[in-house]
Amino acid sequence: MNYTNFYLPDFFFLLGNLSILPERVLIISLITVIVIDLSNRGRNTILLHRISLISMSISMIALLCQWGIHSVSVASENYPISNFSYIFRLFLLICSALSVLLSVDYIRCSKTVLAEFLFFVLTAGSGGMVLCWANDLVTLYAALELSSLSSCFLSGHTKKDIRSNEATTKFLLMSGASSSFLLYGFSLLYGISGGQLQLDKTADGLPLSQYLVAICTSIAFTTAGTAFKPSLVPFHQWTPDVCEGVSPTPVVAFFSVTSKVAAPALFTRLFGLIFPYLSNEWHIVVGLLATSSMILGNLIAVTQISMKRMLAYPSISQIGYIMIGVLAADPENGYASMITYTFIYILMNLGTFARITSFGLRTGTDNIRDYAGLYMKDPVLTFSPVLRSPSLGGIPPPSGFFGKLYLFWHGWKAGSYPSVMVALVTSVISIYYYLKIIKLMFTGKNERSDASTTYIQNSLVSPSISKSSIEIAMIIRALASILPGILIDPIIGITRNTLF
């Protein structure tokens, strides 16, 4: 009997039907990290780092295998997962893995606990992945709270830092308020629909003619609850404080990308499945939020002197651009423009934070003026933002330009004329503060002569090896933020037809 022919198809069939296998791998990994840390009393941090990266790699492989086996959807009665969900779950795994890669040396240098950081990253990542396929209100809310609370604890990772404690308190209070808004909106939906929890059944059970006022109230509360997560204006107040108050830069990097992945996935599933017959009403609300985010985020970013706080405000404007893709969804392209730009944004932003991490390790500061004259002291560290900052600003030919062009074009075709016009103007404004930093690095004079020569010791590896590894990571991500612009047609082809 040929056991290979017998077991191999069965293995792939089992892999394809274990629809939540990637999430299970992460849960097993986070339990393993805690157990090993307790048994070793926090000594073997390299092992914890490797376990988390290996588990994320296994989760990615399992996800890609499932995606290949079921190219459109997974045939599961309990957990129906669409192509849209596969894409965003993969994005969350990429964000988590790249954030962990940035973390190990920085966390050790800042004298904080690596195991707790990995535990909360894995927990927030698994919660965000559940958000991408959850098909009922209870699962959505539980997954959202799992991701939000993990992110909140992660923001207070540096317990001895007063700024971090203050930022965590603000984050916790605002997160609790937004969750109460969302829960009230869900309770209205549950009552009006006759006690339905499934998203499609809830949509079918909404009596639009009888309870239109109550349904619009539910839309308002649901919008307020979900707009907090991606930092849409006016629900953005927590983002600058958390980004500046959180000391470890990898934590800020993790926040900046995962919130821009999980929150749009939640937003599109909620409004695309529950309110398809009221699309005009919620499109107007989302358009106003997106426009306000683009204007406020770019204007306030010009005045900032802290690099992390300055990048927090462009992240607010970036979610405004992404929401244009949500409004531009159509049966032919689906959410292709939004997904494509989100993928490019992940690479651009994580590469930017890799540069900030390296600079922070050497100088212990994130003040913009300390970047003056950096080209003369470290050309490699200067090379990364020269390639990536124009991409964030939408200057051709990097990938950010093609991503924005595709996004704005579909927004214009969908009729979002005011949002697209504001996006074009604010993109020009963003070019100013990105190019200002590049100019400062080449022509500025730094009053601190030792700003780029001091390297923080007590790292996991020797300074020369750590410096080399971070520089390699920056170069790879700089190239990765350019190559998607060249390969944008295959990326668009993969992301098409992603409507539910």
TrEMBL record:
It comes from the Eukaryota. The keyword Transport applies. Its main location: membrane. Keywords: Chloroplast, Membrane, NAD, NADP, Plastid, Plastoquinone, Quinone, Thylakoid, Translocase, Transmembrane, Transmembrane helix, Transport. Residues 134-430 form the NADH:quinone oxidoreductase/Mrp antiporter transmembrane domain. The chain crosses the membrane at residues 12-35, 47-69, 81-102, 114-134, 171-191, 211-228, 284-303, 310-329, 335-354, 414-435, 472-494. It is found in: Membrane; Plastid, Chloroplast thylakoid membrane. GO terms for biological process: ATP synthesis coupled electron transport; photosynthesis, light reaction. One of its GO terms (cellular component) is chloroplast thylakoid membrane. It is an enzyme of class 7 (translocase). It catalyses: a plastoquinone + NADH + (n+1) H(+)(in) = a plastoquinol + NAD(+) + n H(+)(out); a plastoquinone + NADPH + (n+1) H(+)(in) = a plastoquinol + NADP(+) + n H(+)(out). InterPro entries: NADH-Q_OxRdtase_suN/2 (IPR010096), ND/Mrp_TM (IPR001750), Ndh2_N (IPR045693). Its EC number is 7.1.1.-. It is a multi-pass membrane protein. Residues 17-105 form the NAD(P)H-quinone oxidoreductase subunit 2 N-terminal domain. GO terms for molecular function: NADH dehydrogenase (ubiquinone) activity; oxidoreductase activity, acting on NAD(P)H, quinone or similar compound as acceptor; quinone binding. The keyword Membrane applies. Belongs to the complex I subunit 2 family. NDH is composed of at least 16 different subunits, 5 of which are encoded in the nucleus. This is NAD(P)H-quinone oxidoreductase subunit 2, chloroplastic. It comes from Diplaziopsis cavaleriana. The gene is ndhB.
